[in-house]
Each structure stands twice: as structure tokens, then as C-alpha cells.
Amino acid sequence: MIKILGEKFTLLFLKYMPNAFVFAILLTLITALGALFWIGAEPLEVVSSWYKGFFDLLAFAMQIVLIIITGFSIALSPVIKKGIDKLARHIKTPAQVYFFVVLMGSLLCLISFGWVVIACVLARELAKRVEGVNYPYLVACVYFSMGSWVLGLSSSIPLLLNSENNFLISTGVLNDVIATSYTLQSGLNIAMMAIIVIGSPLLLLFIKPKSAENKELKDLMSSDFVSESKSIKEEASDLKLPFNAVSDKLNNNSLIQMVIVLMGLVYIVYHFASRGLDLNFNIMIFIFLIVGLLLHQTPSRYVIAMKRASSNVSGILFQYPFYAGIMGIMLYTGLGAQLGQILAAVATIDNYPFFAYLTGGVINFAIPSAGGEFAVVGPSIIDAVKELGAGLPQEQLTKMISRASMSVAYGESLSNLLQPFYLLIVLPIMGQGIKIQARDIMGYFVIPFVLFFIIQSAMVVWMPL
């Protein structure tokens, strides 16, 4: 019955869901209309806010691009290829592929959501080797596994709360930092982690499609797609001149590259020794870059690897500014703060975590960035919680704020299943040469979304912190 429902939802999404760019345009128009008719903003104010925000995520977009291509370049290295080949010998059935990919993706994304690129490469390679894998469903498995990031070391909201002199402290919303013992290390988050890491592979295995007819990787491959038949080492060799040249010696010199690798490793050790387990976009990109240089050994090979890894990132480059524009309308017209205030106003001491959870999910459609979203609605939610907890001991109030903040994070993460923004990370790798769009994938998420919405709603309200 559940599998049949899953297939029906998939057909509905195929029929009605536009591509990711049209989705972004429609969200832009809906947000603009909300600012015009609900907030009462002037048309020029809406357009100006849209433009003002349009370029706010350029740094973030570049970070995402670098996460993808530096991570992908690692996966293209001979060492990783051999590892995947060995692993593939033990995975023989589509069910094993789905289960293993979700499990590995969930574990990797607990470290950093940028590591989903490793799960992407693993999944694609397994799809080449195992017969009967429904490839759109496999893409859905990888994307679903990415949801664990909000529970792990790169979760932006708890890291923000624990940052010295963060904007909540500087604006007087909070008096001091909130330690991760109240957020990432809480009983609630550990229980949520167990549900996601253990429950997700089992759920995705349970609802897997019955058939992969016309949906295997080989069936979806575009006729004009040319796969890379030569290895990176072979291509680098072909680029050499037919005579001895200093340029070739430099291009294929491993010594100068290893010097850079050594410099990078020294900084990485220094970073973690001086800052503890401080994971952020920049250090993750730097680690990926240095590891890629190490594995590919020479400048020429690394250039070729990065060229191959960069071949399908256009969706990120031109769509991120549109989501930044939506965020600009929400932020600069006051629409986001108003939404946060309304949802916070109906909250009580008993149900405030649920409304925080709901706020995180709703606002995520317009601001698909946990940190950006919390900058807009976080102050309103924290102020509402402080009012509800007036007169309570500081320890209890801190726990309430932590629960509300983590509820926003959980809601934001889960609602990614209903909007295709972060598919822009997965599709550049898994969609290479493939006739596939977001609408081919999103229908598989309806049942998982409903089940996890019920489970997480109950947990944020009743699970001890």
C-alpha cells in the first residue's frame, strides 16, 4: 500500500512540478505578493529589497560550488575508485544499494553536509555496477540522507548560538552564548540522530519502488553524452608535447604540488589544534582541496579532475541569486520577521517547540539556508520564548531557547524534502549525462516527509532535552 502511494505521489510531481528554476521564480512572485498585500510594502520597496538581497548569497554560492567540485575531484582519484570497486563487490542487489547509500550518506553528512558529494559518487558508481537500480529513487536516497547534517558538526544554528559575540548577543536578544551541551549534545538531538541514521535507511528500503523498468542509469543516459573513457592519468599524458619541454616537467611535477600539500596539512593541523573541532565551509573546502591535490599527485592531473568535476554546476551559479532575492524580500520588507512574530504569538509554554518547528519548515521555502533563516526569525522566536519563560530559573530558560532553536533547525531541514533547492548540490554529480529533473525525484519524499513530520513534532514537544 505504501509503495503504491509512493508511486502515485511520484506521478503527481511529474505532472505538476516545474523545474527547479521555475520553482524559484514562482516562490519569488509569491513572496513579493505577500510583502505587497500583507505587509503593505510599496512596489518599489519590494523590488529594491529583491535586488538588495539578490547578491547576498554570492559567497555562499561559491562555497557550495567549491564544496561540490573539490569533493567530486577527490572521488575521481584512483584511490577512491579502487575503494569503490572493492566495496561494490559486496553489494549485489538494488535493496542493498538503497540501504547502504542512505546509511553512508547520513553518516557522512553528520560531519558536514558538503560530504554528500561523496555519497553522490558512491551511489552513481554502484548504479553502474548493480542491475535493477531505480536511478531516480537512488538520487532521492542520496538527497534524503543529506538531512542528517542538521544534527551534526556543521549544524549552523547551534554553532551560531555557541559563537562569541554573535548577532543575537550584540543586539541584546541573548545575554551569553549557549553551549552545544544544550543543543547538539542534548538528549533530544542524540535521539533524533538515532532516528535519522537508523530509521532512514530502513524506511527508504521499505518504500522502494517495485520496478526499475526504463529507470536504470543506462536507460536515462542522454544519447549525446560522452563519458570519460580515458583515465585522468592517461589524459594528462596525452597533453605532453612530443619533445622534452620545461613546461611539461612543471605540469607533471609532483614535488611542487606536495610542497603545497604539506603547507595545507600544517594549517589543517594548526586549525583543529587551536580551535577544536571547528568545522565550517571554508575549512571543509580547504581540506577537500588539499586532499585532492595529494591524491592526484601532479598539477596536470588535478586540473583535469577539477575540469571534469566542474562540468555541471550551472544550476547553482544562476539559481542561488534568485533564492537570495527571495531572502532579501523576506528580510528587508519585514515579511520574515512578521511571519515569525505571528507564529510565536500563538505559542504557549506547552506547544512553543512545535510552532518553532513549524516556523522553520515554512520559512525555509523562502530562505533555504538555516543560518539565513534564523537571522530573520530567530530573534522573534527567542523573544517569544523569553516572555513565556519569564520568572523561570536561567537554566530552564536556556533549555527552552535551545529547544526552540533546535526545533527551527529540524523543521528547516525536513522541509527541504518538499523544495528542490539543495538538489542543486546532488544533481551536478548524479545528473551528469542523465535525463533527470527535480520532478522525477520529489514525489518519493512525500511519505517520508509525513512520517518524519509526525515523529519529529512529537519529539520536539515531549522528548527531554
Structure description:
The chain is mainly α. The protein has one domain (2-218, 253-462). It has helices spanning 2-16, 20-39, 43-54, 58-75, 78-88, 94-111, 116-129, 135-145, 156-161, 167-170, 187-206, 217-220, 232-238, 246-251, 254-275, 281-296, 299-309, 314-332, 335-345, 352-364, 370-388, 394-414, 423-430, 446-462. Helix 3 packs across helix 18, helix 13 (232-238) packs across helix 17 (299-309) and helix 20 (352-364) runs antiparallel to helix 21 (370-388). The longest helix has 22 residues, at 254-275.
Any key phrases for this structure?
465 residues; mainly alpha; 24 helices; 69% helix; 0% strand; globular
